[in-house]
Amino acid sequence: MSADLTLVNLNMLYVRYADGRKERERHLPLGPLYLIAALEQAGFTVDFRDYQMQSCADPFEPAAMAAFLENSAPILGVSCMANLLPFTLLALQDFKARYPDKTVILGGVGAKAVERQILARCPWVDIIARGEGEISGPLLLRALRDGTALEQVPGISFRRAGRYVETPRAPRITNLDALGAPAFAHIRFADYQGHGMISSRGCPYPCTFCSVAPVWDRETYSHSPAHIVQAMQRLHEEHGVRLFLFQDEFMVSAKGRVMEFCERLRQSGLQVQWKAFGRVNLTDQETMRAMAETGCCEIRYGIESGSDAVLARTRKGFTSEEAVAVVTQATRIFDRTDCFYVWGFPFETMADFHQTVFQMVAFRALGARILPSLLSLLPQTDIYRDLPPGAPLEFCPQLLPEYMLTGHEQLQGARCDLPQEHARIFDFIRANPDLFPGFYHYDLQRNVLPKLQVLQEFGFYGPDRATLETAAGGAYAPKIPMARPGQADMARPPDPDRKVRHA
Fold first, then answer.
1. What is the pLDDT of residues 4-44, one digit of tens each?
2. What domains are defined for the chain?
3. Residue 158 is inside which H or E element, if any?
4. Of 114, 171, 258, 426, whose CA is between 20 and 30 Å from 225?
5. Could you tell me the pTM of the whole model?
6. CB atoms within 10 A of CB 1
7. What is the DSSP string of 37-72?
């Protein structure tokens, strides 16, 4: 029996280097697997294809994607993040040209806040799914099968007679335990390096640069500690999983919840390790010790800045002094402490930035791993929406924000090169700056490049003298070609140990 839907996961980490090396990590596609479970429970059959498993020499060749989508169902659903949205849209254009009678649905967080623009400029995309799919997904497939009005399906966007239509979102799922397990029968655990867990959905904090909290309308709901431990136990016993990666931003959401989870994990007798994100203002020494004693080998903090002025402007909810106290304790308790930073804020003065670098150096001396990332101006973020009209946004594909690396680039030191065979992707980005603002920089010459030079001098980014030119007075000034929205071309990113925060 043919499937009702072919669902494709296009979320992947793929990095290539100028010397020919390729870095590829395959992580459990939990979002699609949760959706499949809901669709199958509703009686639909799903053909799931994870593009992380594409084994060809270059997964970004059009022919590779075409081969991957051979013999797909009448309805194609694709999930992607913002970094691969340009590639996904162009791949779907090729797909629709080959199979004009098939219905194309775009899902995942990549299209967040640009649904209207996508449907206006990409006629090959028929429907965009927004928000949680466990409720909307079965209703959408039923409407497509029965030919009933799409207006009755919550959480979708589509065109009707050339007019943009957006239906109200379905109510948030408040009881996550009731979802049951993801549809693990559709994957082989041995194929994946990272075995993720999701203990919660959403984050209530108002951080202005964050692209995650707006996806969930800044509401958060959590699995119970008992459910989380039971899920870990099943994965350990049935699939041999010994290291769990809690990928949600709000695993450490309240001391009582974390302490209950640690106690239940201790009582279970599970001998496993786990990693999680924490918040500076929600962890104390007792909580951290309980986590470490039950197998937490790595905690990750979004510090973002060492400047209290920047922390206040970004509404982080803590001070640099509080960050110093918590990170100092964490480095003494956990095997590894990761500290994430964001640099290149429009309002970040060089004095603010130097405070951040000073803190990064200090934390590195304590043994923390420091992961700075250039600000990514994604369209759903407050910081992007609050930019003044005419803000100096510039496109420089030699210098991409870390979270926007697509896998087409070739990285070398502190720059990247664009292979000519993938020029189509970057031409598409240049032609649609409002669709892909995350690839653009705020004031490259005065805000970004001087800060990059400082980070290189302190060893946070690899040096690349090919992009530096001696200026009058003997100082080094980065010289990188750039393009304003709508123009030209190319270069850079970070060292190989920089992993995407939202896997």
1. 999 999 999 899 888 888 888 899 999 999 999 999 999 99
2. 5-166 (3.40.50.280), 195-386 (3.20.20.70), 387-503 (no CATH)
3. strand 156-160
4. 171
5. 0.91
6. 4
7. HHHHHTT--EEEEEGGG--SS-TTSHHHHHHHTTT-
